[in-house]
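[Meeting: bench + compute handoff]

Bench side (C.D.) handed over the final construct sequence. Compute side (W.E.) agreed to return the predicted structure before the next meeting so the bench team could plan truncations. Sequence as handed over:
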Amino acid sequence: MRVAVSGSHGLIGGRLMVELRKAGHEVTMLQRASGPVPPGAQAAPWLSAGRDVDAVVHLAGSPIAAGRWSARRKREILASREAGTRRLIEALAGAGARPRVFVSASAVGYYGPCGDEALDEQRPPGRDFLAGVCVAWEDAALGAAQALGARVVHLRTGVVLTGEGGMLARLLPFFRLGLGGPVGSGRQWLPWITLEDEVRAIMALLQREDAAGAYNLCAPSPARSDEFAHALGRVLRRPAVLPLPSAAVRLMFGEMGEAVLLAGQRALPRKLEAAGFTFREPALDSALRHCLQG
């Protein structure tokens, strides 16, 4: 396949491009500005998106957890996803591109805080800021069906685990010093997936002609915050008993901390498993060992 990828410098996009090339696919990076291009890939400006592509994977978006949310920051987060997705689709249509599939990032934040409820893809959206962002993001991506005639897939991704970056890499220095522990009450759910399984799932959905709509990209065994902390402590052979109280999270991070660190979703990958996808790392302890050995 000829695959165009936006957000290719990010954690998921970078690994996806490597694995696509390994599998023999032709990969184009969709770039807003000039930058380095990995061996075996080619680049196309964002607003003159590749004409001859079979598939588009759209992963670009302003980071959600990069500090407190001001009103301006929230507008940037939303615009980078909603308006950014619409601009990409317009550019593809203007370039005469007719990809068969348009795979677009989303997040389990679509569901909002849901307590202990098990969430499949049929669950309606929540009402908080992140849920609203995800709804707008997915609605924008649906424009690819009308403008491009493409099959549209939404990737409702949980926390992506890898030692290369993201949440796990930020936690490791503290846990290695024995300073880690649960966040808040420790009872909120943490839907997670390894970077390897995330990329494998994206590649599977790209190629499966009957795959459409939303898919929860998270392992079948979500963990509570305290379970995650204790599992990481076991893998590192360090104590993990120092909690980060909810009040401290709210003081340091405000609304962002409430939504990202204290809320949770018990999301389950029911559509992905029904499509025959098999996780290489379905259990948390094994997944953490795999991430830290990689």
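W.E. noted at the follow-up: The chain has one domain: 2-293. C.D. will use this when planning the next construct.
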